[in-house]
């Protein structure tokens, strides 16, 4: 056995009404890539926040040892000093600062009393090289896409020269090529004796790159598996607590009339008025159909659906609902015409975190639950409860605040909100990002149920197995253009990737 560089022993952590961790003991070894897998709410992030000092020493039970010695972190700074670096699930970057400022946030001192900017930018370049990212360190973060921001947060973590690097869902918003780059970096670090702890719902990458997998469920460690004995179905069964024969519950649903037709949509580029991020795209979705939209991150898929929904302005394009032209300039217009959009970033515009499940579900349907301009509390509860139960939101009651729910359950609340509006077309942008296998299955079930009711579903997905297994038809975008259409039945990962990379250099 190699030496344990880290031990977390008998860790128990409670939040009001929730035991997030119950007597968890884990070890990590020098030079390994250790993955921790488990359903949403299993306690993975909580365990890592204890390690990072986000939850200080006196807020949990149990102890942490690094290199055999007990450590008691009272702040994230202390954990960083001890050689532990975190890349968080939610990006915590300052969007209005530039790249270099983000990299060295809180560590200005090393550049002198009067900050030596030249040196700062030079150092920044050095760290950007470590993640193989070619951006100007003077660029404001907001102007970069999410995947670049993510790579910068990784560079920032590396700049602390950590012994242990913790990555909580680092690839959620990365393209395949970027993820591979990240894993190549992790592999190099491992060779140099660093330890990487990875948390990911993308089981493919977990199985491919880990040396060991720890499975957690309901705040407990269920098992630890060495690479030689990885068995996907055993590990999934341990995660969800039951055997899962099929991960994709797709059913054949009769496909009806065209419900929404999008014609000639073009969208201006947000940063460059001369360019277009979506170029003359047309497609249609039928009743009962699940239309998949494939493509690389940055291909213009979200920009297309955001413009259809009236969230952003289009340059040109027409929309037809049941063959009648409709005009959409704002999301309110889209909603009034029976279109719902579950965005990729549910935290930013899917729900109001500080509000209860009930208030969130009814947020877009206040008219239905009101009388004479006043909200009728019992009508509201009844309406919200219907979806809460149908979609099996995991929470003790309807008054739980949404920001304390796990990602999968937050997504169910967002879905409930839109279902309450009885949409004709439901657009889902990366609906299962960051969501565990068991809950993914439930979300797919919900999608199939809606298709059966005749709703037309449009699903953007970067997870190829999901796209292929759940779609009746797939259109693929590359560089803002439609590059092809595939029938769900004969689509393959290779065919989609081929269409997704038309005219791009990777
Ligand atoms: N700040 C908090 N207040 C109250 N409850 C919390 C808080 N943070 C987490 N929880 C609860 O603790 C449990 C563990 O959550 P945690 O975020 O650690 O899960 P996770 O395994 O990281 O899930 P995911 O895969 O969705 O990221 C969940 O039941 C969650 O609702
Ligand atoms: Mg988490």
From TrEMBL:
SUPFAM superfamilies: P-loop containing nucleoside triphosphate hydrolases. The keyword Repeat applies. SMART domains: AAA. Keywords: ATP-binding, Nucleotide-binding, Repeat, Transport. Pfam families: ABC_tran (PF00005). It comes from the Bacteria. CDD domains: ABC_Carb_Monos_I, ABC_Carb_Monos_II. Residues 6-243, 260-504 form the ABC transporter domain. This is Sugar ABC transporter ATP-binding protein. The lineage of its organism: Bacteria, Bacillati, Bacillota, Clostridia, Lachnospirales.
């Amino acid at each position: 056995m190699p030496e344990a560089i880290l031990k977390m022993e008998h860790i128990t952590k409670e939040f009001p009404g929730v035991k997030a961790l119950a007597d968890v003991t884990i070890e990590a070894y020098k030079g390994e890539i250790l993955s921790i897998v488990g359903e949403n709410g299993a306690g993975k992030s909580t365990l890592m926040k204890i390690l990072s000092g986000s939850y200080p020493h006196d807020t949990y039970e149990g102890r942490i040892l690094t290199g055999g010695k007990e450590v008691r972190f009272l702040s994230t700074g202390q954990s960083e000093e001890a050689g532990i670096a975190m890349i968080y699930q939610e990006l915590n970057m300052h969007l209005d600062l530039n790249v270099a400022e983000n990299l060295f946030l809180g560590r200005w001192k090393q550049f002198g009393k009067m900050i030596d900017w030249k040196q700062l930018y030079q150092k920044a370049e050095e760290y950007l090289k470590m993640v193989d990212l070619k951006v100007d360190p003077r660029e404001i973060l907001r102007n970069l896409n999410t995947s670049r921001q993510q790579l910068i947060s990784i560079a920032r973590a590396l700049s602390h020269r950590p012994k242990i690097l913790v990555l909580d869902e680092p690839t959620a918003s990365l393209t395949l090529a970027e993820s591979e780059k990240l894993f190549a970096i992790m592999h190099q670090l491992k060779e140099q004796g660093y330890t990487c702890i990875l948390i990911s719902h993308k089981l493919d990458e977990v199985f491919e790159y880990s040396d060991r997998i720890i499975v957690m469920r309901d705040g407990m460690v269920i098992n630890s598996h060495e690479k030689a004995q990885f068995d996907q179905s055993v590990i999934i069964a341990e995660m969800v607590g039951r055997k899962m024969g099929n991960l994709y519950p797709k059913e054949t649903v009769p496909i009806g009339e065209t419900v929404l037709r999008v014609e000639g949509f073009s969208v201006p580029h947000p940063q460059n008025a001369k360019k277009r991020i979506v170029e003359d795209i047309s497609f249609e979705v039928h009743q009962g159909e699940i239309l998949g939209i494939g493509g690389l991150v940055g291909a213009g898929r979200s920009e297309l659906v955001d413009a259809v929904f009236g969230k952003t302005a289009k340059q040109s394009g027409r929309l037809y609902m049941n063959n009648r032209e409709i005009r959409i300039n704002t999301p309110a217009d889209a909603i009034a015409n029976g279109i719902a959009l579950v965005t990729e970033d549910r935290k930013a515009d899917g729900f109001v975190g500080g509000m209860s499940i009930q208030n969130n579900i009814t947020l877009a349907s206040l008219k239905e639950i009101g009388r004479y301009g006043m909200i009728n509390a019992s009508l509201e509860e009844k309406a919200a409860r219907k979806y809460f139960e149908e979609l099996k939101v995991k929470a003790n009651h309807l008054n739980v605040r949404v920001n304390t729910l796990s990602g999968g359950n937050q997504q169910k609340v967002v879905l409930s909100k839109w279902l309450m509006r009885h949409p004709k077309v439901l657009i889902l942008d990366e609906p299962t990002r960051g969501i565990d296998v068991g809950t993914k299955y439930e979300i797919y079930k919900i999608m199939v149920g809606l298709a059966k009711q005749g709703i037309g579903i449009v699903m953007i997905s970067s997870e190829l197995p999901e796209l292929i297994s759940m779609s009746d038809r797939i259109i693929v975008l590359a560089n803002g253009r439609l590059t092809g259409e595939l029938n769900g039945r004969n689509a393959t990962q290779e065919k989609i990737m081929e269409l997704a990379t038309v005219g791009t250099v990777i």
